[in-house]
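Hi P.,

Sorry for the delay on this. The queue was packed all week, but I finally got your sequence through. Input first:
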Amino acid sequence: MRRRRCQCINDILEENRQIITCKWSRILPDINLFYNFPYNITKSLMIECVNDENDYHNRRIESQFNDDIFKNFYNLQNLKIKNCRVRQLTRHLFRGLNNLRSLSLYNLSLKNSSLIISDGIFDNLLKLEKLFIVNSQIQAIPSKALCRSPNLQILNISSNWLTAVNLGVNDCIRPMEQLIIIDLSLNAIKSIAANDFKSLTNIRQLILSSNNINYFHHASVNRLNIIPSTITNLINLISLNISWNKIDINTPFELHAKYIEILDLSGNYFNTIPVVIINNSINTLIHLKLTNNHIKNLNYTTLVNFSRLETVESYILSNIPRLSRMILSNNSINSIASDAFNKCPRLIEIDLSNNLISHITNDTFLNIGPKITRIILNNNLIELLQWNQLPSTLRTIELSNNLITRIDSAFKSNIKYVKLDSNRMMMLTSEQIPSTAEYLNISHNLLDNLPNATFLNKSLKILDISFNNFNRINYYSFTNNNNNNDGDTSIEIFIEGNPLICSCEMNWLISNDNNYAQVPLISSSPLLLPVTGGGNLRIKDKHLATCKHRIDKRNIPLLKVKDDDLLCNYKQICEPGCICCQYGNCDCKSKCPSGCNCYHNSNYSINIVRCLSLNNTDRSNFSPKDLPMYATNIFLENMHIPIIRSHDFLGRTRLLKLYINSSSVEEIQPLAFNTLPSLMLLDLSGNKLTTLTGDEMYRTNKVTHLFLNSNHLTSLHEKLNREMPLLQYITLHDNKFKNIPEIIDKKIDFAGLSLGQNPYRCDCDNRFRMQSWLIENIKVIADVKDIFCIENITEAFLKNDTTILSAYPPNIGHEIYAVPMLQFIENINKIKMVLKAKQERRRYKLPVKTVTTTTPITLSSSSPVPLINYDAFISYSKKDEKFINDIICRQLESEDYLLCLLHRDCPNYNTDCAIKLHSVCDELIRQIDYSQSLIIVLTKNFLENEWGTLQIKTSHCLFAKNRTKKLIALLGDGIERNELDHELGRILRKNTCIRINDPLFWNLLHSSLPLKINFYNDAGGAIPGHSNNSSQIYSDCYGNIVPSNII
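Then the structure:
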């Protein structure tokens, strides 16, 4: 060895391990090659013998490997030896390589000498996965050489001198289940015995090309007449090449493999596609090569089930004289060679649907033959249609569900049947449509406009333009601007699924009954299209096609569309026959106000003006007097019209419907609508009206619909009935009515009305008519479930005006008590029945005087005062509870004061519940009433939490009204009386206030508190509530005379 040349690099995946490459002229046995090598961290070792002279000389230079030369590389995974010429690989050459995964031996033989492999040489390679012995002139492998390597997956013994298939695994006890790829190509194998691959049960790829096999051959360029059973029984084959043999359709064995993806049968003697032979792999086959065979007859369904076929190569189906139909659908074909179908004189139809074809080459279909009439390419990936790539004899082309965005000129095409649906076309012109086309399907595309004369001078009989983006169907698409058209032309047209707008320009679509519409030849007006003469269009799906109404946006089937539904927008128009159009002021000239949208129908009987949510400039400049004089429907929404003045709508004699919604209308002057003799519908909802007297509606005697909901109305005068005698429908929900309005109470022939969401009183007094009227007219009320009676308990306590003294759920908003009116009426009836029954039971007893529900209840001194159980009720914040207990309560209770604490002794009070429901608890009111005094500890926590609840505020305000009791406010740090809310400030101004941090705090508090209840006990009396004789305490509280009601 001349010198040692090695390179070390770190492995990419394992940086702490190394890959070593060494190049020497030859290997000698008396030299320690690997002295000081990093044995433990070496992952891969590559040895190459290189000589400066030519390769012929190198093959004569002999190397020699000692036994155990690699034993120290116990972590080695990959070993490669190249161009080191030896006579024999000894038994213990690879001993110690227990972790070796890959062994590659290239060009190891001497010139004209075979390489000898010793028995047991691979016994220590228990983890070996890949073995390559290439171009080393080995003649045989020991019979059990690889039995100790059960993990072997790839075996390559190509380019050697093997004459038989002996892979060193035939006599193994266990089959080589992991071995999947074997390469025996470029050897001298002449025959294959039946058991050569018996133990190789999972082979997926077997390469035997370039041998001399005459009985069995998997590889090409051999002499096989049949496919041997040895190969056909390999069930895991993926790739098989048996090209350029003499195999024909009579080969007796079929391939049992179920996963073959690549099969090369080219250069054999097959006269048809051998489907029977490859039947098990039809669904997995990707590449099938059949060129240079003798195929003459082919059934049109032969390839129909080849679901993964990707390529159709040149001449694969050419020169088949009897082939008439070819179905290659449901494959994965992505390309077709230009000569794939050449010279098939009887071929009529080709079906290539459901593949992955993205383009058609120039010569793919042009040279098929003179009889081709139909090509099917549905469900592919084609983007461009070029008519000149199709045969002149073609009559039908189907390209549904592709990606077509562009179509070339159809100048010389003779096609009659064209399917281009479900593509991506955005435009279509006359030049792109063959003049011979009789059926054209361009549905489910992205078309939104058809230019004039698109279908002029065509042979169309059926046209499908459904499910595109057309807003209107232009009748000039079927004619030209001069209205020239073939009078005999009749086209059946499908237009379903387009977002059509009901435009007056499409009145020709609905001009006739049934399903016929005529393309006009003469236009007397640019908008009103006559329906006489011209070729017929037969709209076949009028019952399915719809158009969207411009105003209410509803979709109307064309079969039900009326002329009044077809509207065109305008900025300024003059009606036909108008004689003053040239003048500025002209009633028959309609000008749309700035910012508004205006529409008219084809005969100008409908004139609609919509002014919705105008911008600030247009809104400030708007005046009702600017509205067109001939308007029939006016919509004013989200405007700013605080006052509707008299004569704002002067002279609109055609006005049928007037909508003034959500426009901040607060007042309507008398005679505001008196010059609208045709008015039938008036919508004033969503405004700020508080009352209507009837003078506003003078001479509106044709109104049948009046919408007044969502205002602030509290009353409606009966005079409205006289001004609107035909009124049938009225909406009054979401107003401020507390009782039934007079207009409703005095009129009995309404067809429909709404009354919900009004604060009707929960009262049975005769002055409230709602309860009795509701039952009598329930059938005409649209929102009975929304009618509630409501009592505001807070307001009732403050004003002493209520019939309900307790709160029950549900509690809605600020209204403490709310109940469905029907439920209220039912409950009242039940109460009456119960009271009547009790009276019957106690008819022999002394009757008890009661207060009726309509009698106002006051809190004056005539009411009985409850028993006194506590010296003081202390109201405080839950967050200050520890401070209250330690500083105030403990001291007072040690002095024998009887105390009731808000968060300790009132189990029914819950802050969270009170905040959520805004309810008033009777128990809390009673607890405070049982106390001689109320001590309120005012802190920031109390003001932010407890005082914000209706329960605390209401009970404390009630206590403050009782001048016979004491209310004391203890002010915490940071509390200023002038910064408190109005109600609390009023309480503090009339009662005692003590600061907690005052040095004289306890003196001031003791002097403010009333005498303790125990004082009476000390004087010889009984404690209230603990004795059967309570007369003395009553006398102390009320004086010598005790009220009889208390007794």
